[in-house]
Specification:
This protein is an alpha+beta fold and 124 residues long. The protein contains four helices and two strands. It is extended and about 55 Å long. InterPro entries: MeTrfase_7, MeTrfase_capping, SAM-dependent_MTases_sf.
């Protein structure tokens, strides 16, 4: 959008929307550093969603928009935010095609699977 002259590079550079998906090892490190907790197991939860299904990208777009539209509108304005989300399906599809496989807490290399640690409290 900067290359098209629709948005200034300064406006893009001034925008910060931090998103962090910790790796399983990072989560384990934090949990085990607390002497009152330990990990009994890490479970996989399958949602049965196929990322290649026709409605998947649109559904993903709606979820991301619901979570981020307010901050985007405040920074870029409603018209640019609408344009960002009009372009989103193509951009996210390209991302899925080119991203490397990774496993993180709440995100794995398979879009239909989430990893969750099951904890117990040793203090009891």
């Amino acid at each position: 959008m900067v290359k098209e002259g629709l948005i200034s590079e300064d406006l893009v550079d001034a925008f910060n929307f931090p998103v962090f998906f910790p790796s399983v090892s990072e989560v384990k490190e934090v949990i085990t550093s607390n002497s009152h907790l330990n990990i009994e197991r890490v479970d996989e939860i399958h949602f049965g969603v196929d990322p290649s299904s026709p409605g998947y990208i649109q559904s993903w777009k709606m979820h991301v928009r619901a979570a981020s539209e307010g901050i985007l509108c405040k920074h870029f304005g409603q018209n640019l935010t609408d344009d960002i989300f009009d372009r989103y399906p193509e951009n996210i599809e390209q991302f899925f095609k080119t991203s490397r496989s990774t496993t993180h807490l709440g995100k794995t290399d398979k879009a239909d699977k989430v990893l969750l640690p099951v904890l117990n409290d040793d203090a009891s």
